[in-house]
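Q:
Got a chain?
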Amino acid sequence: MEKKSIINGKTIFGIILAIPVVLFVAGVLSAQIPWFSEKPPLEFNSDMDNQFKAKTQQGTSFFADRATSRPPVEGTVPREGSKYKLQMNEVASADSLYKNTLVKNDFVLARGKNRFNTFCLPCHGADGKGQGKVVQKGFAPPPSLVVQKASDYTDSKIFHIISAGQGVMPKYADKLSEVDRWAVVHYIRSIQEKNGLKPNSNQQLALSTSTKGE
């Protein structure tokens, strides 16, 4: 008799525990209870989820100019990198100083695509027509890469624009190695060819003035 009472007590206790679980599941399935909450979770230990640190593209009061991203220290170059000598307005000198000696192959095109998608796609778009995600959100569109004017540029001029910037486009010489920049040039040419354009093949022989380790 005592054993039966214990079993009945456990059964009743289990039913009591199951009722709120059943009600919660029914509420979620019927969309009466939202699965996700917009309220911050109650944290007993944040595990460093929230840190006092500067985040990319956000302002900060730590520096006087309130910019989080810092320019490279003057006179330094990345390890195994090179210093680009020309300024943005010196595009006319690019053809006499730089020549694309990087042989185009599947690996180079794959590398160029990878770097293009990482650094160029947000503005220029995957098709190079200048309608990337940031443009769709209101940023001024860059010039299309798949028009005759861009196709008429020499490889050296495209390399210069990537390296030194143009207009509101920043320079990428401090972000991409010289080889990666030439790989991007090859990939841009492949996009132009897919759009029926014949890239400028009039490349002048020149010696690179990039200085290693300066």
In short: Strands lie at 82-83, 211-212.
